[in-house]
Amino acid sequence: MSTIVFTAMPTNDARQLWNGGPDAYGMKPEVSRSTGAGTPCRHCLRNIDDGEAYLTLAYRPFPALQPYAETGPIFLHAEPCPRYDAIEILPPVLETSPDFILRGYGADDRIVYGTGAVTETARIAGRADELLSREDIAYVHVRSARNNCFQCRIDRRKAPHHADRGAFI
């Protein structure tokens, strides 16, 4: 049994944006049409199909502002999509690149220095498991190795009655 889970953008965050809410910078998301490649939705963790509308917006996957609360661009289907739920399986968007940055964060939502590294896609699960075995690491971010964009979060697997997946665990 896997000891990690891949955690997509919370549905509450996506719903707020789908309903016309502002992004992390207080701006209305931009609407574009996908060319079918390189447009990963952070809610369903799939690439947005050719011709589909999507939003480009500033996103901050942290609960509060603080020096380590990185904000950056992400894509989201323009219309509601189901949240990624195959939580123990490498999400489809992570199969689109040979490598990603994995970085550990503490319970205080700050980077745990020395944990960030470009990691081959085939090693993501193993590296995340190694990082999450440390007591000082509460969760791991998966980010683009080329642009540092947030892709998803990796958490420790909880007991079967784990917390509501509507928010980051």
Q: Which terms would index this structure?
A:
169 residues, mainly beta, 2 domains, three-stranded antiparallel sheet
Q: Helices and strands, in N-to-C order?
A: EHEEEEEHEE
Beta fraction? 25-35%
Oligomer: single chain
DSSP helix fraction: 10-25%
| Spatial gap, N to C terminus | 19 Å
The stretches of 5 or more residues where confidence is low (pLDDT under 50) are: 161-165
Question: Mean of residue pLDDT?
Answer: 92
Query: What is the general shape?
Result: globular
Topology (elements, then pairings):
Layout lengths: L3 E4 L3 H8 L11 E4 L19 E7 L12 E6 L21 E7 L11 E4 L3 H9 L6 E6 L5 E7 L13
Antiparallel strand pairs: 1-8, 2-3, 3-4, 5-6, 5-7, 7-8
Can you put this structure into words, describing what you see?
The chain has 169 residues and is mainly beta. It contains two helices and eight strands, in the order E-H-E-E-E-E-E-H-E-E.
A few lines on this structure:
With 169 residues, the protein is mainly beta.
